[in-house]
Fold these 2 entries.
Entry 1:
Amino acid sequence: MYSEKVLDHFMNPRNVGEIENADGVAQVGNPKCGDIMKMYLKIENGIIVDAKFKTFGCGAAVATSSMATEMVKGKTIEEALQITNKAVAEALDGLPANKLHCSVLAEEAIKAAIEDYLSKQKSKNTN
Amino acid sequence: MEGKIIYFDHAATTPLKKEVLDEMMPYLTDQYGNPSTIYKLGREAKKAIELARERVAKALNADIQEIYFTSGGTESDNWALKGVAFANKDKGKHIITTTIEHHAVLHPLKYLEGLGFEVTYVPVEPNGIVDPQKVKEAIKNGTILISVMLANNEIGTIQPVKEIAKIAKEKGIIVHTDAVQAVGQIPVDVKDLGVDLLSLSAHKFYGPKGVGALYIRKGTKIHPFSHGGAQEKNRRAGTENVAGIVGLGKAIELATQNLSEYAAKLQKLRDKLIDGVLSKIDYVRLNGDRHQRLPNNANFSFEFIEGESLLLMLDMKGIAASSGSACTSGSLDPSHVLLAIGLEHEVAHGSLRITLGEDNTEEDIDYLLEVLPEIVSRLREMSPLYESVKKGGN
Amino acid sequence: MEGKIIYFDHAATTPLKKEVLDEMMPYLTDQYGNPSTIYKLGREAKKAIELARERVAKALNADIQEIYFTSGGTESDNWALKGVAFANKDKGKHIITTTIEHHAVLHPLKYLEGLGFEVTYVPVEPNGIVDPQKVKEAIKNGTILISVMLANNEIGTIQPVKEIAKIAKEKGIIVHTDAVQAVGQIPVDVKDLGVDLLSLSAHKFYGPKGVGALYIRKGTKIHPFSHGGAQEKNRRAGTENVAGIVGLGKAIELATQNLSEYAAKLQKLRDKLIDGVLSKIDYVRLNGDRHQRLPNNANFSFEFIEGESLLLMLDMKGIAASSGSACTSGSLDPSHVLLAIGLEHEVAHGSLRITLGEDNTEEDIDYLLEVLPEIVSRLREMSPLYESVKKGGN
Ligand SMILES: Cc1ncc(COP(=O)(O)O)c(C=O)c1O
Ligand SMILES: Cc1ncc(COP(=O)(O)O)c(C=O)c1O
Ligand code: FES
Ligand code: FES
């Protein structure tokens, strides 16, 4: 069912936790559907220097969170926004068809956290 | 614990017993005759089937002619429901069931709704047991069938089928019970229960997969489900799964012979498990009635975590168990049973079902009680839901 | 020949091959997981099922997603017919079949007639083969399904399913073929045949009893037959008969690998048998086309005698065979197939079906050719019908 890589990222998730005073934070998903992903980003000069997550969800949800945080680290905001759920799933050597929706959550979490960062920037600038 | 699996999912399926396989083997080798044929090889196969039928009848306190073999619990349920609905539709088109039936009952009923039947789904109480009075209130003109499971496959609650059958009989309504989880766990006596139809499945009591039976009380109006050859007195066509039927017969004989001893052993383990989990872990609840439940079933909900993750971590530790989380099946809604007893979606997602069997020991329970708290807290540490509770709580 | 049985009833069922049982054994012992579960034991069972599906798909030249496992040929036929009828009834309620189909096709169709469907039974020619032109003529507005068997189970005739499918396709009509007797005897390629649905059953080609498959071409509108769990992509509910499915997969792989060799061997034996019987016994006819028939099938009618008596005497001699006599089944009418090819009732009663298999040898045929004439004349000596012929004849 799950690839070795998925199981590895599930059992040893990278970047679990919170970032104090993160530059961008967002929570996506719905506990009703059994999946919530919370993403924390630390951003310096337009580059994501750290990422952490917390996830309530299945093995695929945890593994994609872990992989997504790995993938955004070191990337510019623009690059990070290009990351698709497909790319995350591929980086994990694929997901079962009925688990692809869990990877959508990862893509949404990145985008939402960056949006949070951008809107904070905006309000900083306007203030 | 290297390599060894601790199997805690006996409600999903059970291993085939050695003695059962031994009785099946001739019918997988030399005794390959088709039971419908008249030469010796065929007559031997026929005899084997009839012995199995006798054993099933004896186990259920039924008459031999009331037992029909099927391809499993799902076929038995489909046959009972669709067969009775179609055969009695002139008398009415209303059927009563509960909200916690297995999909093998609910989905045929959904199908029948599409064909113009009306179904009332009686809700269960928070402890997972249906109130017979509510079933009675659901009866109306045109009610032809009531189907209530004897024991629930997820939360293990035992339903008051006998009381319901009594109510139904007064009104001349046919009663079916899905006893797939009950047979081999609690005594099942069709005469005492007073039901007209009863489904069972061999692989739930150490028999083979893909074979089951339907008890049909003499005189019950029902259509065949599979039409074709004259097997099973023209009521269930198809060359018989001889080895499977032989296995079913032996398995039910063994299961009913040792029932009270077996149940007592499992109940003791179950209680140890329940007490242990409730005392060692917080934010946890036991689903289903504490006492009126199968001796081998424990079902918990752990708040803030999700069931599939829990199962995967248990699997890594060599433990096989089950969950009512939707993520297990990749669908959106968690178990309809857990929702029916009033759990919130997010709580239902964090459920764990442990169902014990004869291969389980005290040590197995100890091991589970050792690893489970660690796993639960590890998953909670990862959970954004737990975060807010911790913050709010301290 | 003391003690040994010569088995000449391979159309009724076949012995399970050793290699097939060997592949099944793990799933009857250690690998007992429920394929729907997510831990390792369950995943292994799931993998085994998917390998079997791959093998069936390969054998039939189908796509893997087009293969669904069932409890046998009868269920496959029931599902195909009822499933298509119910799912397409808005388009029409007319179905076409032939007069020589198996009861697993005819009886579901009778049932559908009771539910308001209309069925045309196209007669076959005296050689037991249906004329595609007559099928074409039976098509009308509202024809939704044509079901014609690939090979007949009694007289072994091979039907022009490919031509029929071509005609049907031009009119957008769904085509089902019951290939239960064909698989393992002749090449079966769903794409070449052009059918939408195809039934098969493992126990006819040295696989286990109680397991079969239905090929459903992608896009074919069909309802599920058994509703319940999400197995088989939500189209055939019920915990899978894992060992049986594994056996089906292995059996079909073996059957198609050695097909031409196997068929050539049996055809040679069959021809020896047919030539021998026709030359050694008088007042006998071969039923079904001499050439367009299964390599393993011979079906004779011996005038003035009755089939059950014949079978019992053969049984005494250690020979297992079959008959289309009504007396074999205790019913009144002899085989509908023999009547459909124009046999008088009394002639149909005296029929003998010999179906060969890989365990049969030249010596078996010699033995049959030795004892059969004796038995036939002994029964004729007892027959009042023969008496008058003898008197009239000589
Ligand atoms: C209560 C109940 N009913 C029906 C079934 C279906 O039986 P089977 O798996 O033999 O089709 C099951 C088991 O899956 C069950 O637990
Ligand atoms: C042509 C044909 N169709 C259907 C069937 C039914 O298959 P099963 O015996 O597996 O139910 C048979 C065999 O009995 C058959 O010969
Ligand atoms: S989080 Fe529910 S299926 Fe992945
Ligand atoms: S003569 Fe007895 S059944 Fe035909």
Entry 2:
Amino acid sequence: MHKLRFATAWLGGCSGCHMSFLDLDEKLIDLADKIVLVYSPIADVKEFPENVDVTLVEGAVANLDNLKLAQEIRARSRLVVSFGDCAVTGNVPSLRNKLGVDDLLTAVYHEGPGRHPTGGDEIMPRLLPKVLPLHQVVKVDAFLPGCPPDAERIWAAVSALLAGEPVVLEPNMRTFG
Amino acid sequence: MNRADLEAMAQREQQRQQAFGCRILCCASTPCLSSGGQAVYDAINAVISEGGWEAEVQAVATGCMGPCSHGPMVTVQRPGEEDVVYERVTSDVARALVAAHAGKAAAVAPVEHVMPASAPFFAKQQKVVLANSGLIDPEKLEDYVARGGYRALAYALREMTPEEVCKEIIASGLRGRGGAGFPTGLKWDMVRKEHSDKKYVVANGDEGDPGAYMDRSLMESDPHRILEGMAIAGYAVGADQGFLYVRGEYPVAAKRLERAIRAAERRGLLGSRVLESGFNFRIDVRIGAGAFVCGEETALMASIMGHRGQPVPRPPYPAQSGLWGKPTLINNVETYGSIAPIVENGAAWFAEIGTAKSKGTKIFALAGKVATTGLIEVPMGISLREIVYDIGGGIPDGLAFKAAQTGGPSGGCIPAAHLDTPVDYESLKALGSIMGSGGMIIMDEHSCMVDVAKFFMEFCMDESCGKCVPCRVGTVQMHRILERITDGSATPQDLATLQELCMMVKETSLCGLGQSAPNPVLSTIRYFAEEYTAHIADHHCPAGVCTLEKQPVGEWVTA
Amino acid sequence: MAVVTLTINDEMVSAQEGTLLLAVLREQGIEMPTLCHLDGLSERGGCRLCMVELGSGRLQASCVTPVQEGMVVNTHSERLVKYRQMILELLFAERNHVCAVCVMNGHCELQWEAAKIGMDHVRFDYLNPDLAMDASHERYALDHNRCILCTRCVRVCDEIEGAHVWDVMGRGVNSRVIIDLNQAWGSSQSCTSCGKCVQVCPTGALFDKGATVAEMEKQHNFLRWILDGREKNVWSYSAK
Amino acid sequence: MASPTAAVRTKRRADDEHPSGDPRFALIDRTLKRFQYQQDALIEVLHTAQEAFGFLSDDLLIYVAHQLKLPLSWVYGVATFYHFFTLKPQGQHNCIVCMGTACYVKRAAEIVAALQKEYGVAPGETTRDGLLSLATARCLGSCGLAPVLVLDGEVLPRETPEGTLARVKQQVG
């Protein structure tokens, strides 16, 4: 049986969506039969591989590294899914958007102790002027809202993806938050 | 005052004017005053008093004569002779022309400043509403009466029933000059048929389109004509109270209207028992406070009642439930300006002018990149080409005509390919623009159409009242996308989203402001799509206006 | 009163003349999305979600449109569904509606309307305005970041409580609900602290102090209670 | 000693006056009386108040609200809806650049940019020293003379960025 080449990625987010993914519990075993996990924060892979069937992307696009990875994912995946509210809406990371990047860095780093990264150096990637949802940067094929999406939602979406069907969630499974 | 007194007043004033051998009319409207018109008027008066010619020569400060970019304008009238119009008059020119026309000195008229009556600017125009503008002192009731003023009101009150007045207006084919073009007579008849203890007549003088000043000029140049039109309307629909809503930016117009109302009331032409009939009609001026949306009739009424100028959904229409819940007739001031001539000359006369569906004349404020800018009144159905090239004198600096923008932020741009289109309600609508209130901005090759669309969208965004979501937020989002197109950060997807947004805002907004806000975008996409794609795909602004200094997000990684 | 017959989604329906279309649609069990409408308050016609397509193809907000004889109504055409989604997208983009950290998460009308209609992402720029919170009142708080300008608070305060503490200032996208002279809520002398505005607010813009994420729930059956009492001298608890 | 009638008379006169003794309130009262304290005259009254005081302070809005017996939020909502009313004090000099279509097409935006750069003040704002208020207008209705601006009440036609700057510097310093 052909196994789907499956990936999950983590951009600007708290990893809560990945935690929720692990809440699939025993379903993870079913899933393991049907997919090959080719890239994920929970797997030690450095490069995003070629020819991926489905990638779930957690987190918003907050900096240039996020942007680069998002573009790689898009170029190498057949289906890209915005996984959780940060990827779908920008969510909590985007709360910084009403501040300018300079003000933000000053408030977070410069006014505190320690080194003063400016972004774009070896300490920290350059921040984008605004945190963006994934679909404003690359084309996204399906949206899985929730903060985090609970295991039930994730399973509903993943089952559809495994079956090669479009992801259509029930209203109570597609609320933000 | 009754009808005979009115006639006597007219004759007295005519005789008084004819007694002067020479009348010198100086335009004292805003454009001419800001080009030095006051100094000209002072110089003329000085020459008259120096020469001791007060008995033979009369200087009159009048309203607008039309070719504003050629101001200050002066017209010389001598009995039995054709009027002579002078342009770009300075104090020296003024002194010379007074001396020459007063015939007292051997002075030679400054002929190089004469604008011949045969000039296309004048020859192609037909003045109905503006018939008195520039020829009378707007602050003198007698001047208006001498030219037949209030005769139509007297006739209507004495010879016609309200129903007959409405029928006459219907028969004339007059349509609303505020922009939408609803048949005026039908509106009147609807209000007339409503049963109510109280009805109102409202004149919309809240001219808000940037680039339009027809209403200001009419209110400043011939205030009584509007009052007379409103009074006839009041009689026709059974109202005893009128409101004239004047834009806050037009203090001179408001002041002249107030004075005109008081003068008319003193003479019994307004107020109780108008012209000794049983008809009572009061008019009050209300000053707007700077909100474009108040040109929308329900928002305007909210503003008259002292509220935030936010529109309310129609129906009910103002004709059924308007000011304070009473039947209310609202027309543009230019519409009221057409009433007296129709009653005076008959519906058939008016219906002769114009096209099959658009009757009469329309005033336009011709502005932008044309040789002669100013105020013009033309018969409906005249071609755009005649307006631009004959009346306006073509595009200066040897540049090519690119587009004419009509209807302001609710209208659209008409490209060169349609220069021969007749200017009437239906033809303009078919081209994706509208007649609008009468702003007409001519653009040459140096105008970027995306930038123009952005300009209008910014206007609509600022002027949105905020009540309904599509207009409040949709205009902001449309403006954002246009900004991205002009700064270089747009993607092809943005153009598709922009078009979708336009359709949604157009179809779902609560009032006319939101419903028409996408028009400038839709019309420029329709005729100048290649300019949009040049910005997005080639990072190039064909007119050289946009800076395009940014890139789309996707290109930041490589940048 | 006369009865009129109209066609709703290809079905003949009769209704009392003069009734507002939205009420008739709801009577028929048709799910209509609304935000500014609230039974018991005057109609505003501002959110445009309840728009329907009339026979002529024209769109009209059903909350302010009286039924008419022979009216042909379509409530869920493809165009309407698309437009409703876009309107919700516009609302989500306008202010900072971060559901995950909102007191009304799970109980919010805006959140639920989006889920029902399938608006699962926003294509427009988030405007991210810099908006204040007002926690100066002893019992309630106001968060402009969540406000959708439905003006239910303004209307309930004026029409039911009769205090007219609230109004809207500015215009367009810069409109804000205000208290008295745009002052801190706690300093208002006209506010009766009745809390009606809080209960009718569809989002987390108005909430009880002390409520944390997802804890705030609202109920507005007091509106029927008061209005029935006022208009009919009848006070009866309803289950809902 | 003053007679009792005189005392009453003095008192009555004091009653007519605003507690602050500012005679400009009499102008507002005149408009209020002209409209018989009708609530729908709110905009007219605000016009008078702004004309008399230059801007609408909170105190003025409260005064108008009390006189017309309107809620404060209503008055504030109306005052902030219309562009014409300003709730901030204005500068000694003011310069309004027309941004109507005709002026825009003739590059009025460059004039605004030049003034903004020179005086460090955005349209709608006043310089820190209170010397100059810069504003843009929707359309001044003098499209034949585009681009147009109004400097301290005087309409200036056919302006250029350099010409305007020179003129404003001369007037404002």
